[in-house]
Amino acid sequence: MFPMSDDVRATTPCGGAGGGCEVGSALPVGAAAPDFALRDQFGQTVRLSDFRDRKAVAVLFIPFAFSGVCTGELGAVQARLASFLTFDTEVVAVSCDPVYSLRAFAERDGLDMTLLSDFWPHGEVSAAYGVFDSARGAPRRSSFVVDPRGTISWAVHNDLRQGRDLDAHLAALQQAVGEPV
Predict the structure, then answer these.
(1) Which of 35, 56, 114, 121 is the most buried (most CB within 10 A)?
(2) What is the pLDDT of residues 103-115, one digit of tens each?
(3) 14, 21, 70, 96: which is the annotated catalytic residue?
(4) Are 169 and 73 in contact (CB under 8 A)?
(5) Whether pLDDT at 23 is above 80
(6) Which pLDDT band, with edges at 50, 70 and 90, does 24 fall under?
(7) pTM value?
(8) Distance between alpha carbon 73 and the CA centroid of its chain, in Å?
(9) How far apart (Å, rounded) are the C-alpha atoms in residues 91 and 155?
(10) How many other C-beta atoms lie within 10 A of the C-beta of residue 162?
């Protein structure tokens, strides 16, 4: 799998018991999720608004395709893809890698999920969500669950070297569509 850390401060959900986000400018729970139109690994445009009134969407910002932690966590999502992709839920991963890199990444690792390129204008969507790290030129390892109404219902921000807790992501995604957790 991927490395995990015992440092729970790095994964304090926005609006949770920790009182806010570890990423200072990240959008809070309850905010309207900014719409976006990004190209996927096949060059097709995917809009967040396409899921409006139909599905809750887990939006996973990943720092770099082909990096160790991103490879491990997206492999873990792939292994549980049937849980993430249902009639009521969707998952997309967003990085600042070019479309062609994301295609090679998906093919190499057998990833069947939607990988979106925030390459140009560079990091515009990541910045709209408040998770763009300008020093690295990539998004922070952040996740948002957007409910079918287009509102952020859950968010979490991990340290660059720390993989995501997929059980927590699935629970938040299911809760966003009113399924029992």
Answers:
(1) 56
(2) 999 999 999 999 9
(3) 70
(4) no
(5) no
(6) low
(7) 0.85
(8) 11
(9) 14
(10) 19
